[in-house]
């Protein structure tokens, strides 16, 4: 390994993949009318499902808002600045987390049979675990959208309680709303700065 | 696009990269003594810093526990089952989130000067935003470790308050502890099942 290797060269991931997922990928704010198929969504899940969650809990749940009727129900629940781009996106994903993730415990963590029962009387602990691992999986999902050659437009600006009531079962909590599609004209804002390595990483 | 395309073929990400990051990558439970360099850690951050966070807040902070002295301070704060593998890992990362992320607001979101001030009187809102976006970035970081050709061993089983007190400034909260290295003998447990597409994704 040469002492003059660039950070990119120190990675095993190919430069093309680095660009597709991280370096060149951007949050899209406009979309063309090119559709996103259910098979593409299926391929994204089939990829990101393999990334890890604590105790294999996998609390992430996804509602794909595709029909015009469903889109009409979603738009008024978003911050005003998020409505036009969501209306233009071929599909919009509501990423949510299931606070009853432990109902699947015995199947997902078979070597700790019955371990999920400890969450029955501890709803705050269950919700904390659901929210942390749901967010972890939301990160994987955003990269999965990019892996499909699509642009993601994640949005935190929406009425969470209203989205939960309108689209989710009682056991789920919305985390993020994500437009998915092919970027349209002037899809990007200027790239925003990132924190320097030494502001984020310390070594002890 | 053929109707017989597999999910993998529907993705733009190369099969090699799919394997490296998702399909073949596994949570490691043993490590060789091959070192992990600071340059590799730097390369990981240089990649994952580009993935998105809400309002570009970037609350993730990372403490790389490398010295034997620091490792000795960490080990007793972990669940007993996590100690031997952490002792064996060449480095262990404490992933944390900064609840004062908004101190960097004007630099990171220059078109909304002063917008961070709204968090001054709303510590619960700030902590919620820090925890969600820190977890999102933790997901990116785990995939970044894999992008470097290294194995990650994320652990949620540790005394969070004790780790915060021992390793972090007052403004940071630990989220996950992650062993990083090259997998050793019998590094993997059997692969655990994943939820089916139709259990996770619904379309409306």
Name a few traits of the molecule.
alpha+beta; four-stranded antiparallel sheet; globular; 204 residues; homodimer; NADH Oxidase; 8 helices
The helix content of chain A is 25-40%
If classified by CATH, what would the architecture of chain A be? Answer: 3-Layer(aba) Sandwich
Major sheet: arrangement of strands of chain A: 1-2-4-3
- Element order of chain A: H for helix, E for strand: HHEHHEHHEHEHE
Structure description:
Two copies of one chain form a homodimer. The first copy, chain A, is α+β, with helices and mostly antiparallel strands and 204 residues long. In chain A, helix 1 packs across helix 6 (123-147) and helix 2 crosses helix 6 (123-147). In chain A, 47% of the residues are buried. Chain A has one domain: 3-Layer(aba) Sandwich (NADH Oxidase), CATH 3.40.109. Chain A is built from eight helices and five strands, in the order ααβααβααβαβαβ. Chain A is globular and about 50 Å long. Chains A and B meet through helix 1, helix 2, strand 1, helix 6 and helix 8 of A and helix 1, helix 2, strand 1, helix 6 and helix 8 of B.
Topology:
Two copies of one chain form a homodimer.
Chain A: H1 15-23, H2 38-48, E1 60-65, H3 68-74, H4 83-88, E2 91-98, H5 105-108, H6 123-147, E3 151-155, H7 160-167, E4 172-181, H8 197-200, E5 201-203
Antiparallel strand pairs in A: 1-2, 2-4, 3-4
Helix pairs in contact in A: 1-6, 2-6
Would you summarize the structure shown here?
2 copies of one chain form a homodimer. Chain A is built from 8 helices and 5 strands.
